[in-house]
């Protein structure tokens, strides 16, 4: 392979250099661009365990060869080179010879200085085909050559040291804080109330392919571990983060969840004082991965509610008085598509002894708090926004009271909780958050909020005859957005002198509001109001009927004239048929 430092543009097609090849060997030469051979400076680099840094001056060149070249290289090779040149220059690799075991021995080449970052890899080659000339994107390039054997196929992770065993076996000597066949498991001991950040490799850059790494987190015996996710993005088909209780990631019965894709996981609390995480990626695409915090969490009682299950929670010693200096927390969880409702039966605490309620798993996040209360006023029923809720109770060192008693219930349909029916209507849930109210007779509306009431009105003494002289009024009123309709069952009055009058509003003296005037035996049709108030007036005055229909205004006195006529005697200063006009005296 020939390689040089120069300013040739990336992507320029270069003609491969033809050379005889030998089994299990390759050779790389760094050639200067546009410089004569006799001015060339070269050096030969042999196998090194750690990456070799090769600094090329502008237009300088170097030769790199596989270990022992031109003799065969050894098994269990893992040799790396990092080549760097001046800022405005590039590096050109030109292969002179190439022959490796095609199944198992590979040369990888990439941009930059980090051979562990597979996203920068340009190619990975094995066999006897001469790779094409290759130009770097910037002023740095890495090469890595591996040959098979136990320590190559199964290199140790987390800076563990690999010792080959036989042809393909290996043994990893792990640094403190790591364990596992390949040192893939990081052991994390959290002190009480301590927290630590955990990220996927290379985060926020893309993680590598073919990962299988684990973390085991442990804290004090009476504490739990709370995982809070800040970011999550993995290849949804193939790259997974699994989380479980205990220390054994192989125990799938203890697995809490396995997740992939872009949905942020909810906060997750361990059942005990140990928790494991395992992250695996395949050989396909990658993403930015995840970032989370793990926190040691003390004095927490974890309550797992099955779907539609309920449980009672009380302050210590209830109904006797609770103790001083308490700091207690409950975390309640239920199925993912369910919610939790807290219903308080009793509540009596001292001024500085507080009950706190919030959504989620972390009471330390003040933004999740629903309320924090003390005293003796019963808190309202409280519905969670998700499938988890926290409850805290803290007391000071002074006097105490009985405390509280409540129920926590898992509910799948919340429509009837959020939208209870009025006027003794019966609520039926529809789906997760919908509802339907079955209203009692006389009520209607989405929540039975509208009176749909009816009432019977009859003439006096009905079904017997009404008296000769009558003047009776009714005012009917309903809800603001409702109307009134009159439906007649029987109608039989004296045609000349018995009249039922109906109108809109409450002022029966205002003839402009009159809707109907009904005498005789004609059966009236249904009569609706235009608003939510209606008046009725029933009169039977015989010869006085004219004065009933046409009352005098401005305190005038009405005198009937025959059947339906009338005459108004007006006070001084007024005139007109009904005394409606004022006189002008000069």
UniProtKB/TrEMBL annotation:
On the tree of life, the source organism's domain of life is Eukaryota
Q: List, in alphabetical order, the Gene Ontology terms for molecular function in this entry.
A: calcium ion binding
Q: Which SMART domains match?
A: CUB, EGF, EGF_CA
* Every EGF-like domain range: 147-184, 412-449, 543-580
Q: Which InterPro entries match?
A: CUB_dom (IPR000859), EGF (IPR000742), EGF-like_Ca-bd_dom (IPR001881), Sperma_CUB_dom_sf (IPR035914)
Keywords linked to the UniProt accession: Disulfide bond, EGF-like domain, Repeat
Q: Pfam families recorded for this chain?
A: CUB, EGF
Asked if Disulfide bond is a keyword of the record, the answer is yes
Paired cysteines (S-S): 174-183, 439-448, 570-579
Q: Which residues form the CUB domain?
A: 50-148, 183-297, 296-411
PANTHER family, A to Z? CUB DOMAIN-CONTAINING PROTEIN, OVOCHYMASE-RELATED
Recorded protein name is Cubilin
């Amino acid at each position: 392979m020939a390689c040089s430092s120069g300013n040739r543009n990336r992507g320029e097609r270069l003609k491969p250099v033809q050379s005889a090849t030998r089994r299990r060997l390759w050779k790389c030469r760094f050639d200067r661009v546009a410089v004569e051979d006799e001015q060339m400076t070269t050096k030969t680099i042999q196998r090194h365990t750690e990456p070799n840094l090769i600094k090329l001056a502008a237009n300088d060149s170097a030769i790199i060869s596989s270990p022992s070249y031109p003799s065969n290289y050894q098994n269990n090779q893992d040799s790396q080179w990092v080549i760097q040149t001046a800022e405005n220059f590039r590096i050109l690799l030109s292969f002179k010879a190439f022959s490796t075991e095609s199944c198992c021995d590979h040369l990888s080449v990439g941009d930059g200085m980090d051979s562990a970052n597979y996203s920068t890899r340009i190619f990975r080659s094995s066999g006897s085909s001469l790779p094409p000339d290759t130009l770097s994107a910037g002023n740095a390039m890495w090469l890595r050559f591996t040959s098979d054997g136990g320590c190559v196929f199964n290199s140790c992770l987390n800076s563990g040291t690999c010792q080959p065993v036989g042809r393909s076996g290996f043994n990893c000597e792990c640094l403190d804080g790591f364990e596992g066949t390949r040192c893939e498991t990081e052991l994390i001991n959290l002190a009480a109330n301590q927290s630590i950040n955990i990220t996927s490799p290379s985060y926020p850059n893309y993680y590598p392919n073919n990962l299988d790494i684990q973390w085991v987190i442990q804290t004090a015996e009476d504490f739990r571990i709370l995982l809070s996710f800040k970011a999550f993005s993995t290849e949804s088909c193939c790259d997974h983060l699994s989380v479980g209780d205990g220390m054994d990631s192989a125990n799938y019965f203890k697995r809490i969840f396995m997740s992939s894709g872009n949905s942020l996981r909810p906060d997750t609390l361990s059942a005990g004082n140990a928790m494991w995480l395992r992250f695996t990626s395949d050989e396909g695409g990658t993403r930015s991965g995840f970032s989370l915090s793990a926190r040691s969490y003390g004095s927490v009682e974890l309550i797992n509610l099955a779907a539609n299950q309920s449980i009672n929670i009380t302050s210590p010693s209830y109904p006797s008085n609770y103790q001083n200096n308490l700091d207690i927390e409950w975390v309640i969880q239920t199925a993912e598509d369910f919610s939790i409702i807290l219903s308080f039966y009793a509540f009596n605490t001292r001024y500085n002894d507080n009950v706190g309620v919030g959504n989620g798993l972390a009471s330390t996040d003040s933004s999740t708090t629903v309320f924090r209360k003390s005293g003796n006023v019963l808190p309202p029923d409280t519905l969670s926004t998700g499938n988890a809720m926290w409850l805290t109770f803290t007391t000071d060192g002074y006097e105490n009271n009985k405390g509280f008693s409540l129920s926590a219930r898992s509910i799948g349909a919340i429509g009837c909780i959020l939208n209870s029916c009025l006027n003794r209507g019966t609520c039926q849930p529809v789906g997760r958050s919908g509802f339907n109210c079955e209203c009692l007779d006389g009520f209607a509306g989405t929540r039975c909020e509208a009176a749909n009431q009816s009432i019977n009105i009859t003439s006096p003494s009905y079904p017997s005859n009404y008296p000769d002289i009558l003047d009776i009024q009714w005012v009917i009123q309903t809800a603001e957005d409702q109307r009134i309709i009159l439906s007649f069952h029987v109608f039989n009055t004296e045609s000349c002198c018995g009249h039922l009058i109906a109108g809109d509003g409450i002022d029966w003296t205002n003839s402009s509001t009159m809707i109907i005037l009904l005498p005789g035996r004609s059966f009236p049709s249904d009569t609706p109001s235009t608003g939510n108030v209606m008046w009725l007036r029933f009169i039977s005055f015989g010869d006085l009927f004219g004065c009933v229909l046409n009352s005098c205004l401005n305190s005038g006195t009405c005198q009937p004239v025959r059947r339906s006529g009338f005459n108004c005697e007006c006070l001084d200063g007024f005139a007109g048929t009904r005394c409606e006009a004022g006189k002008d005296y000069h």
